[in-house]
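W.,

You were right to be curious about this one. When I first looked at the sequence I had no strong expectations either way, so I just let the prediction run and decided to look at it fresh. Below is the sequence, 238 residues in total, followed by the output.
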Amino acid sequence: MSDTHQATPTIADEPAISLESVTKRYVGAETVTALADVDLSVYGGEFLAIVGPSGSGKSTMLNLLGLLDAPTEGVVRLDGQDVTDLSEAELTDARREYIGFVFQDFHLLPTLTAVENVTLPTAFTGGRYADRAVDLLGRVGLGDRLDHTPDELSGGQKQRVAIARALINQPDVLLADEPTGNLDRDTGIKILEEVKRICDRGVAVVAVTHDELVTEYADRTVRLVDGRLGEGDDGFAT
């Protein structure tokens, strides 16, 4: 295995994104508390792994960090600014400007090439991003796959296209849902080494995972159990 993940990261002094005393409840036939009084800060240049059993609140936390959902109580801060009560239009702008998403199932459009998939988030911004897409695909080792559609790519190549797409708008925060979940170990290592290189450029990376390999590369691991947060080196301890 490469020793890339053992390098000492340069981590910013101020959080790129944070949750302050955040509680999230879902009200239905009965009320479910998905997160309970959570405090969490993630810094530029840091790779944070979130682990925990199914139903522990990991996806809820990722949705809150990604401004896809709002807390029932508490504050979400992005680059130091309270974004908890922004309008939907303002939240859309904040997500586009500051946050990139990498989904477990890639979410690539099957009829588009790798370059076209990477530029998709810029479709309504009016800019020209093809050159940047080509550069990003080259960085993740897909310079020779620019015109390939998803069905012409392996699982690891699809994941790298998804990472390039998440970086097209130069986000401050990258959120990844099970970034190695569909990959064999060797391909997972390549993806995680690329994630570390992204952190080296000052991006804050948060990965929700069941894969212990991810925690080997992460700078910090936190564990969620029943919506409550713990922290430690052994994120998979029971």
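Here's what jumped out at me. Helices lie at 58-65, 88-98, 114-119, 130-139, 155-167, 185-200, 212-217. And, maybe more interesting for your project: Residues 185-200 form the longest helix (16 residues).

Coffee later to discuss?

I.
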